[in-house]
Write a structure and sequence with these properties.
mainly alpha; 3 helices; 60% helix
Length: 81
Amino acid sequence: MAQPVHASKLYERDFVAWCEETVAKLKAHDYLMNVFDDAWQDALKQVHRDYAKELFPEQWPLSRDIDALLDNQFWLADEDL
């Protein structure tokens, strides 16, 4: 007898497939590099409004290497890696 497919498992597989496809597209078309600075500036405008007392770097402080941007978990503290 066929086993039922649970919606959460199907969603997880779809999400993983979507992520892999998106990463491949970004790498293939260098789209991210073309819009990175504009996206960073847009994000800064928003966080300056939402977190006016906090300091944020005006320029992206980490690697701009496409693999590093897509693969490294830069939002984690070093001790969490």
